[in-house]
Amino acid sequence: MYNHDVSQENNASANTNVNATSTTATSNTTPQDLNNWLPITASREAKWWYSAFHNVTAVVGAGVLGLPYALSQLGWVPGLTALLVSWLVTFYSFWQLVELHEVVPGKRFDRYPELGQHAFGEKLGYWVVMPQQLMVQVATNIAYMVTGGMSLQKSFDLLSSRFDGIRLTYFIMIFATFHLFLAQLPNLNSLKTVSFSAAAMSLGYSMMAFVASVIHGSKRHQHVSYRLRSHTTAGIIFDTFNSLGAIAFAFAGHSVGLEIQATIPSSPEKPSKKAMWKGVVVAYVVVALCYVSVAASGYWAFGNLVEDDVLISLEKPRWLIITANLMVFIHVLGSYQVFAMSVFDMLESYLVQKRKLKPGRPLRLIARSTYVGFYNCWGSNNNPRTYRRSTHYHPICE
Fold first, then answer.
1. Higher-confidence residue: 388 or 369?
2. Residue 324 burial (CB count, 10 A)
3. Which candidate, 86, 248, 261, 271, has a CA 20 to 30 Å from the CA of 63?
């Protein structure tokens, strides 16, 4: 994993970009050379709107489609209050991260472990922060692997009955195949086109769910009930915690905040926090638009009968459900890569520093392909229902 021996570079070298193939023998690789090759810090040429793409892609996940269900467990006032509080808290905490990125003059905390070292000490800070970040990134990648397979399976199921009976495993393998190619993009900054496409898809399927819910609700609204789903004390308590967990999951994305800011150039006259904060504000406006519209319209249209994926409640028109699921598929393709890039950074740093392997394309190809393949097997061989609450998706056929 990323070792604390890799020094944090100063602003004077912030814009240096060294081609991986030009790196010489491992024994001659300095911490600065390594930092210029690793995917988080290799390119610092990002614009502020790149950070907006990355943050929308990381934060707005498939969990947005489960927000109407979360509201049905809490009710109108508590549900919308929880949504608003979560938005405000995560927005404020993002501001803190942006400010902390360059809180020490002459240094940039490009990765969470580096900030942990500054806060808790060299060794303790690294081992307190790194395992937690790694756990979040890997778990998110597994969840998105399964979500991508499920959304693709739904689309094909609705397209033709000939695809009935095809196991989810094969769709997850198709999803993983895309990542074997996407994972070879050298650094986080090179994901800008992928991230923009993913952000556009997240906005697209959110708006489709919103419009379709409003149309459905305007026709059948008189039959809707807004009573809580559960009628027992134990059930209400369980539903409350479940809904709060769903809302918290919907606001994921902070775990790559520092890494996204690391791609932005910085100087004493123009620190990276100005561009990063502009991107965060734009991203959180999009987040508010998607979350409130989908949550409120879905709950308004279906009441306490809404499914934990509002697309399942909609059912028709078929073309809309197919399109929305394909959008989810494209979105999680991008989200997977944004979250995986910091894992690749840790993995490649470990292989170069501890295993003494030579940095270059062969190392990157083998390491990243192994990661994608291993967690593809993990996701394929586990019951997809274990991801039901975290991704808000159901398999149509198993």
1. 369
2. 25
3. 261
3-state secondary structure the chain: CCCCCCCCCCHHHCCCCCCHHHCCCHHHCCHHHHHHHCCCCCCCCCCHHHHHHHHHHHHCCHHHHHHHHHHHHHCHHHHHHHHHHHHHHHHHHHHHHHHHCCCCCCCCCCCHHHHHHHHHCHHHHHHHHHHHHHHHHHHHHHHHHHHHHHHHHHHHHHHCHHHCCCCHHHHHHHHHHHHHHHCCCCCHHHHHHHHHHHHHHHHHHHHHHHHHHHHHHHHHHHHCCCCCCCCCHHHHHHHHHHHHHHHHHHCCCHHHHHHHHCCCCCCCCCCHHHHHHHHHHHHHHHHHHHHHHHHHHHHHHHHHHCCCCHHHHHCCCHHHHHHHHHHHHHHHHHHHHHHHHHHHHHHHHHHHHCCCCCCCHHHHHHHHHHHHHHHHHHHHHCCHHHHHHHHCCCCCCC
Instruction: Report how far apart, in Å, the C-alpha atoms of 54 and of each of 172, 178, 214, 279 are.
Output: 24, 19, 29, 9
The model's pLDDT over 37-63, given as tens digits with 9 standing for 90+, comes to 999 999 999 999 999 999 999 988 778
Query: 29 pLDDT band (50/70/90 cuts)?
Result: low
